[in-house]
Amino acid sequence: MTRALPIAPPEPSGRAPRRSSRRATAHPLAGALFVLPFFLVVVAFLVVPLGFAFWLSLSSKSLARGTRFSGVDNYVRAFTDPLLLDGVVRVVLFGVVQIPIMLGVALAGALAIDAVGTRFARVYRLVAFTPYAVPAVLGALMWGFLYSRTFGVFADVPVLFGGQPVDFFSSSLLLVSLGNIVTWAWTGYNTIVLYSALQGVPRETCEAAVIDGASPVQIALRVKVPAIRRAVSLAAIFSVIGTVQFFTEPYVMARFAPQISAGYTPNLYAYNQAFAYSNFHYSAAISFTLGFVVFVVAHVFVVVSRRRGAAS
Fold first, then answer.
1. pLDDT tens digits, residue range 222-256?
2. pTM here?
3. Which of 70, 202, 234, 283 lies in disulfide reach of 274, CB 3.0 to 4.6 Å?
């Protein structure tokens, strides 16, 4: 015979089972403690240096008076400095020509990759992104050797057709040579950015356009490009900011092209004012002026892009 197991009597009615009354509550300062290390790093390496640089821009130093508060004198000098203004004009001309070419090539490459979608597209993405992975200094040195009339390969190409060697460091071709370096370095990066944006375009929209009889070119120009308008605008903003900060390529190429003066670009001018002439106060004023210009240009570009998007 099997033996019956005793059954525990039910609890009296009206008595609920005991539960823990403690609840896990987070300390009110827990979130602040997690953010504190990042906040200290930002204050130590961003806020404090910016504050010190701004104080430098509002003061001046001389042998007779020492360091004294000068107000906005350095900023007035920056807006009337002919060398700085020449550099600004040169950079604006550079950006007006180089940015549309770079973004046009990047957009065409992104549309081609999105349309092909084969193994070749993967190889093309890797090859296109490789120049961006090369440090800017190494890229500028490499192109400087390629441009050289002594041992470069590009300068002697016209000789094969009976022409004269090309001087890529001449005054008429120097901006073109620098623009080629920047386009080579950043086109692949912008291609990947725009291609990533194209992945968010609904495939049903493209299929509907195909059913309506649209050609691949029409689909690219009338469906895909309007869909990634915000990504194109973002790439344009970053390109404008990078153009205003144009420094590495002319700084390196100055070793090959003596006509690149100390004020060839605004950033190069600010650098030379600080580390070649020890005029740190005026250099800080130039830096803050450039930062203000970048902020205004980027804000205006965003506002115009939003209004065009709302109107369309």
1. 889 988 988 998 899 889 888 988 999 999 998 88
2. 0.80
3. 283
